[in-house]
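Run log, item B.
One chain of 266 residues. Sequence copied directly from the ordering sheet:
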Amino acid sequence: MAKVFFRLLALACLLVNAAAGLAADTDYKLGQGDTIRIVVFQNPDLTLDTRVSESGTITYPLIGTVAIGGLTIAHAEARIAAGLKDGGYVQKPQVNIALMQVRGNQVSVLGQVNRPGRFPLETGNTRLSDVLAMAGGATPTGADSVIVTGIREGKPFRREIDFPAIYIGNRAEDDLFITGGDVIYVHRAPMFYVYGEAQRSGSYRIERGMTVRQALAQAGGPTLRGTDERVRVHRRNSDGQIARITPELSDLVHPDDVIYVRESLF
């Protein structure tokens, strides 16, 4: 009966874990604040619900302080089992850890997304696309580029990624694995501005590969008094000075371009 009881107890831990929607993936690394349940087969007195401390440790019966922060669940089970065996408390310990609540491995998503905030990384193989999906994706004013910052191999890490190119350009390698503590930032999309004899003067988002002709179409084209043959662009150059340019309609629009549609001469 005892064996059946503890098997049912271990199964119950797994069911609770599944019901909470938390994947105890073998690659998941335990972090500060994670809540876990530890069960040792045929040793009910060693069952423990606990939380990983800020220093990445737990206090476990008989063996005391155990450092498990940063370990996968399988490695944490092995470390506790080794402590019980080396101390002579249990000859052949069978340790099971169920992840009850994820708190330690979190990622921050900021900027032009629909649901900015902090999100738990429930598995060790969470990609950039997964995290952006958690945040509801970019808003209509969000840029195509995404900035990821964090720590990799003990060093500061920063990378700017052209997110649509992951799918449009088949660049799957840019869909990075995200780790706890990363910050993902979606900046405001680059804009251009139209004024003068345009149907709808105002500011607009620059789409990928947008030309001056397409920008004018976005603004409804010239009014009856205007003409697309007398368009002028005010553009900041590398020296920070504003230059006045007479563009071809097939020229690409640059970020912060100001397009002026002048009146027709006739």
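Observations after the first pass:
- The chain has a mean pLDDT of 87.
- The helical segments are 2-19, 73-86, 128-134, 163-168, 212-218.
Flagged for discussion on Thursday.
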